[in-house]
Amino acid sequence: MKRIIAVLAMMLLILPVKAQTNKESYEEYRNRMRASMRQFNDSVKMSYEQFRQKANEEYAKFMRERWEEYQSMKGDPTPEIPEPPKPYEREQNLVVPKLPIKFDQVISVPIPETKPTIPERPAPVIPATPSVPVYTFKCYGTDCTVHMDKSLKFTLKDVKEQTVAEVWEQLTSEKSDVLLEDCLSLREELALGDWAYFCMLRDLSESLLGKETNESVLLETYLMAQSGYKLRIGRKDNDLILMLPFDNTVYERVSISLDGEKFYVIDNGQTGSYYVFNRSFMENDRILSLRMKQTPKFAFKSGGTKTFKSKRYPDMTVSMEMNKNLMDFYDGYPKTLWTNYSWAGLSDEVKGKLYPMLRKSIEGKSQIEAANRLINFVQTAFEYKTDGQQFGYERSFFADETFFYPFSDCEDRSILFSILVRDLLHIDVALLHYPDHLATAVHYTENLEGTFFTMDGKTFYVSDPTYIGANVGECMPRYTKTTPKVYLL
To answer: What is the H or E stretch that residue 100 is in?
Structure first.
């Protein structure tokens, strides 16, 4: 019945068109419809421009009022994982018991969107006209081109409320709309997640107005606000400061609590008092997400070639050249939860070299045999050092970084193994956080003897990428009676 109604409705829509085409040529009809569509688009554009114009006027009006003073908070310390100086090696002829374990807490981590989300905006794309000059800048070694009017370049005489508000009003123009649309198009073209998009706006602003200047901070704040992101602007002494909330915990970064929400200070690590313009630009502005499902498509710059080989399975050997531009981006990423590093996955460049070799090695093997091959590759193809030994501080790797840096530790290997299991075996995996260790647990669908826990009817077996020589299902003896937190991916 619904299908019949839909067909009748479509026929009713078509009939007037046919009747009209009997009276005029197809070309006349098409031109008339195009004119009608242009008129509609113009009305939508006008409505949205008026809405944004009003929002910017109100924002600048309140910006002139005295900014409130707030005290900042020190950043949360990065969780440390004190480990032995080298991985634990499996003993020969060890008998693996089928041993259930208890878990302390289950943290379910939702799957991030498969594509970066462009903030919704009702305005149609504004075509850049030839009258607007082209401006080129670099974002992590990648050439980015936008249409930039010279009038958008400005100088702040001071950082007082009145001065900042006046420049905000100057930025509100159709010329900045053309720039904004170009930025959003680059975001999609380069597959930039929220943090990468902010980095691009920062690079653009600093290229135009100077590195870490008040002018560049104000322009990046303006573009972020127009792009639909929640933020606050403030000042400390004579410096303008951008503050952003994140959807996940961030470590080692100073923050300010505003109306019960934590805003992190960007590009300034000082504690103390800040004067903040505590007002949203628009309702329903979005919080910047640190969950990244797609690797940014930065230009390739060689970071050197290295070879990786499994000790147990010599056919699992691969040489790879890493993208230094991507490594630089990851190096500046806010320190966050391990799950975010896992969900980011591997870059297309790495998968293009690594996955054909791994797929060939596990082809025709049972699920357990394939998993044992994958885990031995992660256990033995990389040199081990703790973060403290390698860097002097705690940090986690995105999976590409494990191939780039000379050493890796337990969380880096667990993040990499979790990605390989998801991508190549297509089965559920979790991260296990012990008080001084990070491992994985995998829901194998084949029978297996080993250390396990059951959740929601699924049995997950401990699979430790740092327990050298161990097969899946084998837990380091020191952890068989230790209660971990479970991060379901």
So the answer is: strand 99-100
Kind and range of the H or E run holding 469: none
Q: Which pLDDT score is estimated for 40?
A: 45
- Mean pLDDT taken over the chain: 85
CA distance 453 to 285: 41
Euclidean distance between CA atoms 258 and 279, whole angstroms? 10
Q: Do β-strands 273-277 and 232-236 pair in parallel, antiparallel, or remain unpaired?
A: antiparallel
Give the residue carrying structure tokens 């970064």.
Answer: 253
Tokens encoding 113: 């969107």
Joined together, the tokens standing for residue 60 give 């600048």
The predicted pLDDT at position 267 comes to: 81
User: pLDDT digits over 461-483, tens only?
Assistant: 999 999 999 999 999 888 888 88
Q: Say whether 244 sits in a helix, a strand or coil.
A: strand
- Greater model confidence, 97 or 320: 320
Please say whether the beta carbons of 391 and 63 come within 8 A.
no
Q: Is the pLDDT of residue 384 over 60?
A: yes
Q: Which amino acid is at 380?
A: T
Whether the pLDDT of residue 31 is over 80: the answer is no
Answer for the pair 445, 472: CB distance below 8 angstroms, yes or no.
Answer: no
A 10 A CB-CB count for 172 gives 18
CA distance 195 to 186: 14
The pLDDT tens digits of the residues spanning 137-158 come to 999 999 999 998 877 899 999 9
Contact 351, 416 (CB under 8 A): no
Element (H, E) at 117: none
Residue 125 has what pLDDT?
44
CA distance 280 to 231: 7
C-alpha triplet 135, 140, 143: angle, nearest 5°: 30
Among 446, 450, 477, 449, residue whose Cα is nearest residue 462: 450
β-strand 429-434 against 437-442: which pairing, if any?
Answer: antiparallel
Domain architecture of the chain: domains with CATH: 2-60 (no CATH), 63-74+121-277 (no CATH), 94-112+296-488 (3.10.620)
